[in-house]
TrEMBL record:
Official protein name in the record: DUF302 domain-containing protein
High-level lineage: Bacteria, Pseudomonadati, Pseudomonadota, Alphaproteobacteria, Rhodobacterales
Pfam families: DUF6858
InterPro entries per the UniProt record, alphabetical: DUF6858 (IPR049204)
Organism: Roseicyclus elongatus DSM 19469
Length: 133
């Protein structure tokens, strides 16, 4: 998993997984695996699955030609709400894109380390196949 600054200001984690490195065949398969992890956490609530590709396609928006499917799983870690301004960085979202031969999974770093660590672990679990050299 790599951490980068997107547009020089957003701390983003992203992981590229070749399709032969995972038992998941589609974006929906990956979303289902992540939903199972969310369901297993008592303090985490799923909010929605947003089909970003369908939305952008519906009005003729610009989509990178390699992207074949793209969805966001939206959820929230409910550990605490220390002040009203924290609402600006919630809820969380993990994006999953299909680029033909590989998937790209990404999320914005959370202000709470426990959330970032959990999301990183969930994403890494998607690469569940050992590829022979």
């Amino acid at each position: 998993m790599k951490q980068t600054l997107l547009q020089q200001k957003y701390p983003v984690f992203h992981l590229e997984i070749a399709k032969e490195e995972t038992s998941c065949a589609t974006v929906d398969d990956i979303i289902a695996r992540l939903q199972a992890r969310i369901d297993a956490e008592p303090n985490v609530a799923e909010i929605a699955v947003f089909d970003h590709y369908a939305h952008t396609s519906s009005f003729g928006g610009d989509i990178h030609p390699e992207i074949l499917a793209a969805k966001n799983l939206v959820f929230c870690f409910g550990y605490k709400l220390p002040d009203p301004v924290m609402l600006s960085v919630r809820p969380r979202s993990i994006g999953v894109a299909d680029l033909g031969t590989r998937f790209v999974i990404s999320f914005l770093e959370a202000p709470m380390e426990i959330a970032t660590t959990a999301m990183e672990g969930w994403c890494k679990e998607i690469a569940d196949k050992v590829v022979a050299a």
